[in-house]
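Running this now, will post back.
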Amino acid sequence: MNQADWLHVTRREAPLVVSIPHAGTIIPADIEARLVSRWLARKDADWWLEQLYAFADGLGATVVRTGVSRTVIDVNRDPSGVSLYPGQATTGLCPVDTFDGEPLYRPSQDPDAAEIAARRDSFFDPYHASLQAELDRLVARHGKVVLYDAHSIRSRAPRLFDGELPQFNIGTNSGAACDPGLTRAVEAACDATGLSRVTNGRFKGGWITRHYGQPERGVHAVQMELACHGYIDEPAELTPDTWPTPFQVARAAPLRTALADVLKACLAFANSA
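Update: finished.
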């Protein structure tokens, strides 16, 4: 598969990079043939984030996004396969089950080590080469850059967490991935909405936040995990007929306004002395 078919980079000049690693739905035919169903394989996508954050490049942000499904390879997992959340349920570098524990592959069709390595070469490594190149370019220009890793998830996923997820879930690797000033700025923008928010709760930041967040080198990383009911309808029962629900601009408008304020806060931090 040609990189131009799945790796999307919108290059701008402000000191802000928005990464969207989980909104993709592309699954190569040879992999799809071994799956239980297309719907299950796309069920846990971060639906419609490219539409939700469509305003980002207008703020001068560089956007790096993969169109490849996380079922093929999850570019926000440690490439060594080490769990980011030891002792807690999660999905791996090449997931074999959904967030709800449903098997993705037909019996005896899970990817083996050689296939996982090939997927890394084809999809994981190019994504991160592009992300690193954009960060290097902007750090050289500005000296300080914010990497904003954009995610969303169902508000209820009992295998992953108890109860209902707050609207805004900020992850900074327990403070190691960015300056405290950036954390406070993002928190303030979220709190101004009156919607629920937690910092370094169930989602402390995936591999992207943990790997690239190096404040001493000028890269300040923050992950934003949204409860998706803030911008799309979330059905009580997920079936091929009910999920995903469509993106509606008017439905998403209030949250999009709030996220614009969050990104503006990131830019203000990056431009501060």
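The CA atoms of residues 48 and 247 lie 6 Å apart. More later if anyone needs it.
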